[in-house]
Design goal:
Layout lengths: L24 E5 L14 E7 L3 H16 L2 E7 L1 H9 L7 E3 L3 H6 L7 E7 L2 E5 L6 H8 L6 H7 L6 E4 L5 H17 L3 H8 L8 E2 L1 H9 L5 E5 H7 L3 E3 L2 H4 L6 H5 L2 E3 L5 E3 L4 E6 L9 H10 L2 H9 L3 E9 L6 H4 L3 E2 L1
Parallel strand pairs: 2-3, 2-4, 7-8, 7-9, 14-15
Antiparallel strand pairs: 1-3, 4-13, 5-13, 5-14, 6-9, 6-10, 11-12
């Protein structure tokens, strides 16, 4: 399935960043004249990343990567599954892929890569508009003054404007639907309430692209929206934290997440998994990886990048190689353990 997006390309210096809002975005920055590439000639890290990672990549990762390596960087962000589908179809040709969740990476294996490195997790939360009609109740739930089950009762209220992403193209979209299902089992939310929260699992009135969802919430057009914790932190949005058993962000509860499932509009049944950040270098005979692609993944595993990830709300995981670990470049293998 092709992901709709507006393409914006701007050349900027290493300390400038483009953060565009739309159905999906692409940003490009040049190499820094102050840095000297290790191979003598700047090459391009052409990144495709989850829509929720757009700010992280373009503001916090791209500029320091350029400054440290002298290489070039560009990033295109959209729903992880949609990006993977485009890569698999040959419609998108990045040399670095950084999705959220295991399913998108599986879609590009083994044709484009046979390994990935897991390095962080991104728990689900429910972000809300602070001036909305339900904001005071949502704040009480967030502060623990009302039970977490009231969140689901509130979201099921007729007239409550809830936003989420498309399960067909985005890991967050699948995770949110599966989260509501787990709330029935672990929080005692009734099936009727859960059904009312979601309307239909593919209710178009609730569905927005991953890069547009939070800006629409910020504009006050929604009462609340699915979000990752780091998104809420980075955008300064108030949010209701979810218990670990249902937030898809705690490795200790991975078996619980794997017990969840949902049925897509195509009839395909998908199962839940930890919403982890994975990265891999993509390469084909017609589009071989560049030194900058490997260097960018190495940068994501560096102490400096991990400090940024922690500050921005991500759960740090021990960098772990998944799949055919021996196929990963030596520099990446030296920074990670094998599963």
């Amino acid at each position: 399935m092709r992901v709709s997006r507006s393409i914006i390309a701007v050349a900027v210096t290493a300390m400038m960043v483009l953060v565009a809002v739309g159905c999906g975005t692409s940003s490009a920055v040049s190499s820094s004249p102050a840095a000297s590439p290790t191979n003598g000639t700047p090459t391009l890290a052409n990144v495709a990343s989850a829509g929720s990672l757009q700010l992280l990549m373009d503001k916090y990762m791209g500029p320091p990567f350029i400054a440290q390596t002298g290489d070039e960087y560009q990033n295109q962000s959209a729903g992880s599954i949609g990006l993977a589908q485009e890569i698999a179809a040959g419609e998108l040709t990045p040399n670095v892929f950084v999705p959220i969740g295991a399913a998108p990476m599986a879609l590009v294996e083994p044709a484009f890569t046979t390994w990935a490195v897991q390095f962080a997790a991104s728990p689900l939360v429910v972000a809300y508009y602070p001036q909305g009609p339900y904001a005071s109740e949502l704040k009480k739930i967030s502060d623990g003054k009302l039970p977490i089950t009231d969140l689901f009762t509130l979201m099921a209220t007729p007239g409550f404007k809830l936003g989420r992403t498309d399960p067909a193209t985005d890991s967050q979209g699948q995770g949110f639907v599966e989260m509501v299902g787990l709330a029935e089992k672990y929080l005692g939310v009734s099936a009727a309430t859960a059904s009312a929260v979601l309307g239909e699992s593919n209710d178009s009135s609730q569905i927005f692209s991953e890069t547009a969802l939070e800006p629409i919430l910020q504009a006050g057009e929604l009462d609340a929206a699915s979000a990752y914790l780091p998104q809420a932190v980075q955008l300064g949005l108030p949010y209701v934290a979810l218990p670990n058993q249902i937030n898809f962000g705690d490795p200790g509860d991975a078996s619980i997440y794997e017990s969840a499932s949902m049925t897509l509009s195509t009839g395909k049944v998908v199962t839940g998994s930890l919403l982890d950040l994975e990265a891999s270098v993509l390469s084909t005979a017609s589009n071989p990886a560049t030194p900058a692609a490997t260097a960018f993944v190495e940068f994501l595993l560096s102490p400096g990048a991990r400090a940024i990830l922690k500050k921005e709300g991500y759960t740090l995981l021990t960098p772990t190689l998944l799949g055919q670990a021996s196929a990963a470049p030596q520099g990446i293998r030296s920074l990670a353990t094998s599963s």
